[in-house]
Specification:
Length: about 260
């Protein structure tokens, strides 16, 4: 599943090609994945120039004049592709929707059929991991309100903080040396501070790594640089054996150097 770092890189690359382009047509290929799939809401976008592309949690937001936007959530296996010709776009497998701009066609696809495209959606007020609202104070408050919640489950819960998934939760917990088996209410203030710092640090480092390895990427995942959430790695960069265990119903990678609270 693309997580915050992947989507940040996708966003930047899509902006280079699409911002300023007029949207000429929308083709919902799978209506159940496009909300709504027809009618006056979609018509509001046609003939308008794309003003910007932003990200909110795990969704890419395509912004148009007058505050209108649509959101794309790639879910587990969704992908994006830019095509130069209609025939090329039509040949993309597992299409969910196509957006024809002046020069290029943006195709959203998903072999799993889970990807969602939402027009004029209501976004939740949960802070994104890069939002100023995701402060150390906010984090401490939410942890205190959920004392018996597992810390790994907390980090991947999009009702607590948006944008973090399974892979980066493991990286963040390793960086902050907190065991994924810890309970939220057990974390002392110094651990909360380490955790908050690790969220921004790990995610920004990942963005830089993805840009180095795949500077033009708009789809897929780059994970080769991860320090512990890496099936082929046997040891962390500090030389500790990497353990693999189901935590919060997710395959979790961690080491014994991470403190259990």
């Amino acid at each position: 599943m693309p997580e915050l770092p992947d989507l940040e890189v996708f966003k930047g690359n899509l902006k280079k090609h699409l911002v300023g382009e007029t949207l000429l047509a929308i083709e919902p290929v799978h209506p159940r994945n496009v909300i709504p799939a027809a009618g006056p809401v979609l018509e509001q976008f046609v003939g308008k120039a794309l003003a910007d592309i932003e990200r909110d949690g795990k969704e890419l937001l395509f912004l148009f004049p007058e505050g209108k936007f649509f959101a794309v959530h790639l879910m587990l296996n969704g992908g994006l592709q830019l095509c130069a010709e209609p025939a090329q776009a039509a040949a993309v497998k597992y299409r969910i929707a196509s957006f024809r701009f002046q020069e290029l066609i943006l195709v959203v696809s998903d072999p799993g059929g889970l990807c969602k495209v939402r027009f004029l959606p209501q976004l939740t007020k949960v802070p994104d991991a890069f939002s100023p609202a995701f402060s150390q104070e906010y984090l401490a408050d939410r942890l205190a309100r959920n004392p018996l919640m597992n810390i790994k489950a907390f980090l991947i819960d999009q009702k607590m903080v948006k944008g973090i998934g399974n892979a980066y939760a493991d990286e963040i917990l390793w960086e902050s040396r907190i065991s994924p088996l810890s309970l939220c209410g057990k974390l002392p203030p110094e651990a909360v501070a380490r955790l908050h710092a690790a969220v921004a640090g790990v995610l920004r480092e990942a963005i830089a790594s993805i840009r180095r390895e795949a500077p033009e990427i708009i789809s897929g995942e780059i994970r080769s640089f991860l320090k512990v959430h890496q099936p082929r790695r046997k040891e962390s960069p500090t030389g500790h054996a990497i353990r693999v265990q189901k935590v919060a119903s997710k395959t979790t990678y961690f080491t014994d150097e991470q403190i259990l609270y």
